[in-house]
Amino acid sequence: MTGLKLTDVSYSVDGTQLLHHINFAQDNKGINAILGPNGAGKSLLLSLIHGVIRPDMGLVTWDGVATHKNKHTRGFVFQTPIVLRRSVRANLAYPLKIIGKNSSAAIDDMLELSHLTALADQPAASLSGGEAQRMAIARALITRPTVLLLDEPCSNLDPASTKLIEAMIRTFVADSGSVYISTHDLAQAKRLADVVLFIEAGQLLEHKPAEDFFATPATPQARAYLSGDL
Ligand SMILES: Nc1ncnc2c1ncn2[C@@H]1O[C@H](COP(=O)(O)OP(=O)(O)OP(=O)(O)O)[C@@H](O)[C@H]1O
Ligand SMILES: [Mg+2]
Q1: What is the pLDDT of residue 230?
Q2: Which of 60, 108, 121, 127 lies at 20 to 30 Å from 220 by C-alpha?
Q3: Tally of structural domains, the chain
Q4: Ligand index nearest the alpha carbon of residue 18
Q5: Ligand 1 probe mutation, 18, 47, 150, most atoms within 8 A of CB
Q6: Is residue 118 in some structural domain?
């Protein structure tokens, strides 16, 4: 089996169960949007899918392999992007250094893709929110992952910055990468998503083609969320 598979996955902290018996399988292709209200469990689900946290019950596998064994094949950009206290270029060099590579061509490509070439030698701490988010995505892509996980990458960004990030996502997918993105921007989900995963109160309630989800949400919770009542 290729792709992602969650089998009866639950996750608890200090005895409180936050994700409940999640089951789904998804091929490695296209853009998967994780939707649901604040506190539903979207960030936790992304962390489990990546492998930075492990379920306390059940199994998460990519291509049949447990997540902690092939973490390096996935790039993860957190809800608040991490900015290392060094130049933009050095931020992009960092993951390459960790895997023993030093490719200035790869860095230049990523600077171009993220529209940050002119800011390459600026301290990353001086970047605007949108620029920092683009840098974090470029840094996640530089080791050529097969999957990109994005946690609300465009929250607080203006339409132009959002457009640049969506272009980065589309370029990655056109190069046969697959994406999992959480977002509260329903227009963005409609623009980007092939598949929707809808979660509420730690439960996966819907997993279906985006078109079907938006046209005919099956659960009262999804209907309420889409109409702004949840
Ligand atoms: N380490 C933790 N300890 C205790 N509770 C946690 C922990 N991490 C997450 N939670 C709780 O789990 C629930 C799901 O959190 P999560 O961050 O995944 O929500 P979310 O869907 O990403 O929400 P948002 O849209 O606000 O980002 C929340 O109620 C949160 O308070
Ligand atoms: Mg979150």
Answers
A1: 84
A2: 60
A3: 1
A4: 1
A5: 18
A6: no
CA distances from 72 to 47, 84, 98, 150, 218 (A): 14, 19, 11, 15, 36
| Ion ligand 2 neighbours, Cβ < 5 Å | 42-43
Cα–ligand 1 centroid distance for 105 (angstroms): 39
- Provide the domain limits for residue 208: 4-82+147-226
| Ligand 1 atom index nearest CA of 79 | 27
Ligand 1 neighbours, Cβ below 6 Å, are 13, 18, 36, 38-44, 79
CA distance 83 to 229: 35
| H or E, element range at 111 | helix 104-113
Which atom of ligand 1 is found nearest the CA of 40?
21
Determine, yes or no, domain membership for 172. Answer: yes
What torsion do the CA atoms of 53, 56, 59, 63 make, to the nearest 10 degrees?
10
Position 217 in a domain: yes
CATH code of residue 13: 3.40.50.300
